[in-house]
Specification:
5-stranded mixed sheet, 11-stranded mixed sheet, about 50% strand, rod-shaped, about 400 residues, 7 helices
């Protein structure tokens, strides 16, 4: 009986083993185990604050995105994607590597699969952390509306400077920190928030991923000014040397385009250059003066176009003198009292001396020199009277002239 019982136990054990083997065969035939590779799994670094606290900056050289090998039932693993996994690497102080650990985020299948990262560790480049402060500059794009103006000097940021912290190698590449402002069509000032951009010496943008900025956004004010073209008034002072005359000026610049606040720009029409800047005193030849126009622009305006200086030629010409003999019969007798008549008896003609520039003198004749005497209040008798000579245009009459006038009753 004992032998029979023992023999039955072995038979039962054998049957159990055969059943298990049969189950394994059935499972592997219906849902076989297989291995797949999943790409694009991003590795998250943890404990990075320990590096920052100890003034180290890091850069991932290798291992930030990896492939993982997954083994498990085909019905499970063949549908897995990168988003189904979480990969982390814990950094440590003074270590340039961090071991990668990968888990499946779906706990319902995590026990059915095995995961092996094909890259075992993240490789880091550790450097001492350095900081440098940069002024924020503006880079303009676009053109404001017609009749309006702005430039880099009209753009202000708060803060005006940014502290950048990172590796020495990256900090050394930074040439400037800018805000990029598109002012297309602007006709009024605006306030906005802008993101600072780091540029290298070639104007290429620098990746800020491994850098710390004291400000990630900047309050930015863009001031837009109204424009106006105004005349330049040049005024002279003094008198040239005797025998010479100031004959005007010729300037390389006669107007200027300025910009200012609307209420200011509407109130200005001309730019006046002080007379003492263009002094012709005792000159006997032309003189050239370079006038720094920018210097005379009022502080509430800015000059935005054209030369900042004007070359002004002060023209000095020699005076020419000529004597014209004007018949006294042509002298006008003015304001004669009623009941009287008058006649000039001497002289027959007046030698009137006129001086002026050659072109002006050439246009004068004895016939177009106007002369007159004032007889107001005079009665019968002989009178020696001063002759009034109207100066020809742009000319000067020299000397005094008299005539003898006899007044009698009608």
């Amino acid at each position: 009986m004992k032998e029979k019982l023992l023999n039955n136990i072995w038979l039962k054990l054998l049957a159990l083993v055969l059943a298990i083997l049969a189950w394994i065969v059935i499972v592997n035939v219906s849902d076989p185990s297989t291995r797949v590779t999943v790409s694009g799994v991003k590795v998250e670094l943890v404990n990075t604050e320990v590096l920052i606290e100890n003034e180290y900056i890091y850069e991932v050289i290798e291992g930030n995105v990896i492939e993982v090998s997954v083994r498990g039932p085909r019905t499970i693993v063949e549908n897995l994607e990168a988003a189904d996994f979480k990969a982390t690497a814990r950094v440590a102080l003074m270590s340039d590597t961090a071991k990668i650990e990968v888990i499946c985020v779906d706990e319902s299948i995590a026990g059915d699969i095995s995961i092996t990262p094909k890259t075992e560790e993240v490789k880091l480049n550790l450097e001492n952390m350095v900081s440098e402060t940069f002024p924020v500059q503006a880079v303009l794009g676009g053109t404001p509306a017609s009749g309006y103006f702005t430039d880099e000097s009209q753009i202000a940021t708060t803060p005006a400077n940014i502290k950048v912290t990172g590796s020495q190698a990256v900090i050394d590449k930074i040439a400037r920190v800018v805000v990029k402002c598109d002012v297309s069509g602007y006709s009024q000032s605006i306030q906005t928030t802008m993101t600072p951009v780091l540029l290298d010496a070639y104007g290429k943008e620098i990746d800020k991923t491994n850098l710390l900025l004291s400000s990630d956004s900047l309050d930015t004010t863009i001031t837009v000014l109204k424009t106006k073209r105004i005349a330049i008034n040049f005024v002279t002072m003094g008198e040239p040397e005797s025998g010479y005359k100031y004959a005007g000026y010729q300037a390389s610049l006669t107007n200027v385009l300025i910009a200012g606040k609307e209420e200011d720009i509407d109130a200005i029409d001309a730019l006046n250059i002080p007379a003492d800047y263009l002094d012709v005193t005792n000159l006997n030849s032309n003189k050239t003066v370079v006038v720094p126009i920018q210097q005379f622009i009022p502080s509430n305006f800015m000059m935005i176009q054209g030369d900042t200086t004007a070359t002004v030629e002060l023209k000095i010409e020699r005076l020419y003198t000529k004597t014209y003999y004007c018949a006294t019969s042509e002298v006008k007798l003015l304001n004669l009292e009623d009941g009287y008549k008058a006649k000039i008896t001497t002289p027959v003609s007046l030698p009137i001396v006129v001086s002026g520039l050659i072109d002006d003198i050439d246009g004068v004749t004895s016939q177009n020199i106007v002369t007159s005497v004032n007889l107001e209040g005079l009665t019968q008798g002989t009178h020696v009277l001063k002759v009034k000579v109207d100066e020809p245009e742009n000319c000067e009459v020299h000397g005094e002239y008299t005539v003898t006038v006899v007044i009698t009753r009608n």
